Putative two component sigma54 specific transcriptional regulator
Amino acid sequence: MGTNRIIIVDDEKDLLELLVNRLKRKGYEVDFAENAEDAIPLVKCHFYDIAIYDIRLPKMDGISLLKETKKIQPEIQVIMLTGHGTIETAIEAMKLGAFDYLAKPYNLSELEIAIAKAIENKRLKEKNESMKTIIQQQNSFQIIGENDKFRALLDLTERVSNSDVPVLIEGESGTGKELFAKALHYWSFRAEEPFVAINSGALPEQLLESELFGHVKGAFTGANQDKKGLVEAANGGTLFLDELGEMPFTLQVKLLRFLETGEFRRVGDVRERKVKVRTVAATNRQLEKEVANGNFREDLYYRLHVLKLTIPPLRARMDDLPFLIDFFIKGRKTLSSEAIAALQSYHFPGNVRELHHLLERGILLSNGNTIEESDLLLSNVEKSSQKSLINMYSSLEQLEKDHIYKVLSEMGWNKTKAAEVLGVSVRNLYRKIDQYQLKVPI
């Protein structure tokens, strides 16, 4: 998790020097000041886990310094020292957010115990914030498939799960890349730590950077308070970067630096922060081509390419179709033989996600307990075999164009809904609409 950083503020020089040297020998990073006025700039410029403040300080006292510190770094754990304060002063400090207090003279080992407790308290607070989400994710996590090549891929995923190196997951939209990212996390020693996902193509560049690395109050219009980024939320666990090929080029530089050092800055902040996370990235693009076209940084590609998992499309493992159908329908209804035959001959450009949507639509539209072929709303083209599709279309581009147009039409040209059905980002969908010059029919 990195070295814990401490700031000490005390106007007794001999005691201050003793504390600084003792804690540095114990492996802590330590900064110090003899008064509150010198301490505040340090708190503004550096990130601290623990602050140790004497209550009696010249000019601004320790209680006022505590208040200012909590405004700048709300998560810091503050230990107050007092040789003159009363119990009421200590209680006031606790109400204002201090973690603990010690009365002078105190034993140095007593202070070290208080520091250790404060660090553990901070760690538990951060962990508890994410535990509810972790439990929900674990309960919803399941990968279905018995195909030999698919099982071999699952076996490889399990074998590399405990590694710290980044993983790149490639595969078409809807193949289940996020499920494999979750497998890398929940099959590893990180299983009880956070799994945090972000879609790199879903937000404009500034918002994406803020979401990823966080921001400080006043960093930009609307930044009314400090915000922790997802890299901090993922500390100790896994950060999943979905649709990595969509990430803006300038932000790729900051991501590369984070991958190499674990260090980052919140937007608008001058303080370096450091976390330890396992990074997993996913893309439905061929990043080698994106590098060749100048859309993706070569150094970032090779930093992520240490381990690569390639998820096969559904059409390459059609022997898994019965297992997937059973899983998605969950005994709610049955499929007629004609409906099963239609699905078996379908090309599934949207892969497993599309199968799920087709079955949900069939359940919704069917009368009685049986889903008929007509309830799936597959067109004659969709029901054709792959061979027929190759004969009927001049290229895969034409097939993609027609499929996007059909989904847009069915969604009433609602781009957000269509992108969800297609399994792509809204930005990517707009790019395809422009590429194929698709227009709403008059």
Notes: Confidence is low (pLDDT under 50) at residues 383-394. Residues 394-442 form a domain with the Arc Repressor Mutant, subunit A fold (CATH 1.10.10.60).
